[in-house]
């Protein structure tokens, strides 16, 4: 079992710097029959399972309070480092040139899609996940509830407002601003959608989480159709200020949702399915609407996990169980943890380090243990979609580490770095290209 020395007595010690070496060692273990003695449910004969473990926004820059280390370097993360030692690690780019470093574009890359070919915007992906129909003239906008005070973006999440509170506010906005061609749709917490017939698809709209603690006047929507977007954002202020939900939040010392912020817009988007591309079925486990939308577009499942919050207090065990359940039936699972990204946006290095440690201990370790226990062919990819440096409180396009391991490999005790120093921090290629190779190898297997 990776990360637990001596857990499987009959397994061979395997530490290698190449994936091919791991594959040969795994084949040897299977030929020796050491795993065959365990009576456990089978995946199916010679069926390679593929698992992606993604810690959103884990990458960073050196932080003074962490001794000039990044959170990835400072975190106690033995499982990821043992995967790096037993597999192959590359530094990869997840954001095509000319596109913003958003979780939409970057997660598409880790799923093996080149966003430069078919990306239209974040909101259309989330609309697909919410099963919201879009006509040819419809433009989907991401609609954040935010806190702007004295002209400054104080909180892009309105104090991580609850879904129940937010639903009341979105319903009030629909009643006050909605029309036949303009409809607000309730999402989760501060994240909602607006479907606008004939909306300004080509305006430049800054994501609110990229302008934390900055004056919003310098980052208002710009370009063709921007005035209409700005007007709608402005009109939302009076409706929200008068709402009992916000009045109650202010009385309780919580951040009110002072206005909407529209961004991430685009027209309807399509992707080729995993079944068509690789002959694979499976699912994405995530608390985030964006990932649920990518799952829908890729023809994958997106189970709802009770207690999955997208924050550091998420239901890790429930998400692990959901991924395991998918892999018992299908070939592919993508387990996404949002917490490191949220901590980066907060600018909290210590909390981000803790989020990474929880990802390693409560997601990577049990998933790898479970795969090793069964002793059947698998491959696991551990990575992140982008960096969310605490110094920026936002995303950047710098490359990130990505590890690939074929198993089973037995006991691994050696650790190697899995952080921003891989290959001296220099990108070795696009993540989508390597993922396509990995997924094609899975299909061939």
Pairing-aware structural class of the strands and helices? alpha/beta
What is the CATH top level name of the largest domain?
Answer: Alpha Beta
* Count of strand segments: 11
How many separate domains make up the residues?
2
The biggest sheet amounts to: 6 strands, mixed
Q: Pick out the low-confidence regions.
A: 1-46
Distance between the termini: 22 Å
CATH topology of the largest domain: Alkaline Phosphatase, subunit A
State Rg: 22 Å
Outline: globular
Order of helices and strands: HEHHEHHHEEHEEHHEHEHHEHHEEH
- β-sheet strand percentage: 15-25%
Mean pLDDT: 90
CATH architecture of the largest domain: 3-Layer(aba) Sandwich
Q: Fraction of residues in helices?
A: 25-40%
Adjacency order of strands in the biggest sheet = 2-11-10-1-9-8
CATH superfamily of the largest domain: Alkaline Phosphatase, subunit A
Q: Note the total helix count.
A: 15
């Amino acid at each position: 079992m990776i990360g637990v020395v001596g857990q499987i007595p009959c397994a061979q010690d395997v530490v290698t710097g190449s994936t091919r070496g791991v594959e040969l060692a795994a084949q040897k273990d299977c030929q020796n029959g050491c795993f065959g003695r365990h009576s456990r449910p089978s995946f199916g004969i010679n069926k390679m399972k593929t698992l992606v473990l993604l810690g959103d926004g884990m990458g960073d820059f050196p932080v003074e309070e962490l001794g000039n280390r990044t959170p990835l370097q400072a975190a106690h993360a033995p499982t990821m480092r043992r995967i790096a030692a037993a597999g192959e690690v590359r530094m990869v780019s997840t954001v095509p040139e000319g596109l913003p470093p958003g979780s939409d574009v970057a997660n598409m890359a880790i799923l093996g899609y080149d966003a430069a070919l078919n990306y239209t915007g974040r909101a259309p992906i989330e609309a697909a996940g919410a099963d919201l129909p879009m006509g040819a003239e419809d433009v989907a906008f991401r609609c954040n509830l935010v806190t702007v005070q004295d002209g400054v973006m104080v909180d892009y999440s309105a104090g991580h407002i609850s879904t129940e509170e937010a639903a009341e506010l979105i319903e009030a906005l629909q009643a006050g601003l909605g029309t036949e061609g303009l409809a607000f749709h309730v999402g989760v917490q501060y994240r909602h959608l607006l479907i606008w017939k004939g909306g300004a698809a080509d305006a430049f709209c800054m994501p609110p989480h990229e302008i934390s603690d900055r004056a919003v006047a310098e980052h208002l929507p710009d370009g063709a159709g921007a005035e209409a977007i700005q007007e709608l954002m402005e009109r939302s202020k009076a409706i929200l200020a008068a709402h009992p939900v916000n009045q109650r939040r202010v009385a309780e010392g919580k951040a009110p949702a002072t206005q909407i912020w529209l961004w991430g817009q685009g027209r309807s988007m399509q992707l080729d399915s995993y079944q068509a591309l690789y002959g694979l079925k499976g699912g994405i486990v995530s608390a985030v609407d964006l990932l649920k939308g990518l799952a829908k577009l890729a023809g994958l499942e997106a189970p709802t996990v009770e207690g999955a919050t997208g924050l550091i207090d998420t239901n890790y065990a429930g998400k692990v169980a959901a991924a395991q359940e998918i892999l018992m039936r299908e070939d592919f699972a993508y387990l996404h943890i949002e917490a490191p990204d949220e901590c980066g946006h907060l600018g909290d290095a210590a909390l981000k380090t803790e989020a990474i440690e929880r990802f390693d201990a409560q997601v990577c370790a049990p998933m790898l243990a479970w795969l090793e226990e069964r002793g059947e062919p698998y491959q696991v990819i551990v990575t992140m979609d982008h960096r969310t440096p605490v110094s920026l409180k936002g995303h950047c396009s710098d490359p990130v580490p990505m590890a690939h391991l074929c198993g089973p490999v037995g006991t691994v005790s050696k650790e190697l770095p899995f952080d921003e120093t891989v290959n001296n921090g220099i990108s070795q290629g696009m993540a989508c290209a390597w993922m396509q190779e990995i997924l094609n190898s899975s299909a061939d297997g």
